[in-house]
Fold JAB domain-containing protein similar to deubiquitination enzymes.
Amino acid sequence: MNPIPRMVGPATLLRFASPEFDRLERLVFRRYPRKEWASFARFGWRETPEGLVVTLAALDEPVEGDLDDGVADVKISASYSRRIALAAERHALGVGIIHSHPEGAPPRPSSIDDEMDRYYAEYFADFAPGRPYLSLIMSELAGDTGKEIAVSGRIFHGGIWREVTRVAAARRPDVVAWPGGERPPAPPIPPERVARLTSAFGKEAYQRLQRATVALIGAGGTGSAAIPILARAGVGRLIVVDSDHASESNLERLHGSVPQDATDAVPKVTVARRHVAGMSPDVVVETWIGRLPQPEIIDAVIQADVLMGCTDQHTSRLAVSDIARRYAMPALDTGGLIEGANGVVTGQIVQLVRFLPEDPCPQCRGMINPTRFRQELMSADEREAAKAEAEAAVARGERPDPIASAIPQIDTVGYITTTAGTLAAGFVIGWLTGRFDPKFERLQLDLVAECLGAVDRPQRRKGDCACGRVRGFADQAADTAPFQPPAHWEPARKIVAEKV
């Protein structure tokens, strides 16, 4: 029988959240090192201009009798296959099979794997028409950056087979894609400029950064501080999103800016790209004018290994958390502010909030002000109308609707946003390299309090919030998104060839 042909078409990114991947790893390597094991699984997906993004949503683990424990390879019972197929008629997710290879064996499909995949691609199409069928192989191998979990995969979708070309497992840089079961190219030798980083973390840390992508929502005071830290450390690709431009009022906080940028109203993302080009020209910087959750921005940021929220917007914070949950990617939200009145500063606050796919959302955490949220989604005309109605209410001796009040200005200064951005970038580097993991859930620092007034505020999910149900469901849980982009927002656009 001829092998399934290797596809060279659109890229396919496979994403795992930690809870599902940890269970999967324990399950498929259950008989390691000499014998294989397997499980069916469910997947979410999204088509993007770069290709297909697929996310592990759930495992349909085998029960006794589903797999033959008396053989070394994987032998699946007809009853197990039929149970999964019938379940697919009741859910909207893609279906797939994941199995391991023995110690030392690369995740290269065998002729038996080819036969199995041809059969299942056709079989599940009858129960889950139009949905992808995914087949994954996992191996535990010695790689160029130490011990690795090598993953190969192929997907049958839209009448063609596609290879998994990239794998992103939340906080697991040791999980590496082996397209077609072949070892990826050797990583680059670290340059001398990162000698201190490699001395502290090891050369494999730099190599992991080189193959990583970080997406940042916001390129103002906080984002512009994080960007150079990530670029100098060696992160290979940055995706930077912001809808605003440089102005006189933010030059004090905007790293990489010059006074002429305010005069020319240069987009903040352009300032960021120019800044990186001057210090780390080998870093790929993709810049977008837009906001989450515009579809084009979702398409861009879900290509990243980590998502950073660097704005003071409640809408942005909600969208970052939603993307982290549905597309199985770790996110870190950060910001800062000054507290006080009448010229007396009582607090200088830096906050970093972890949004792993399994964490509670900002609404569960009480971080969203409903009035502020509604205000942020209003158009300029709607705000003017609300203001006029408020003035009329006051004239009638009535209390105006709170929605008509001005959105409060968050007071902050450059050293606070710089502290927040650089701290967040440092924790992201820890995630990407696997060298350290933030132990907090919602960290608050007061820069003028004793011992920085550091507190963690772990919070639980409330009731039956969707944030506890649709981890990794991707577009198949789009109806749980907290809001849709209002029609008055300017269309998102990618900046391709502007001069910097």
The chain has two domains: 12-181, 192-368+410-495. The first helix runs from residue 18 to 28.
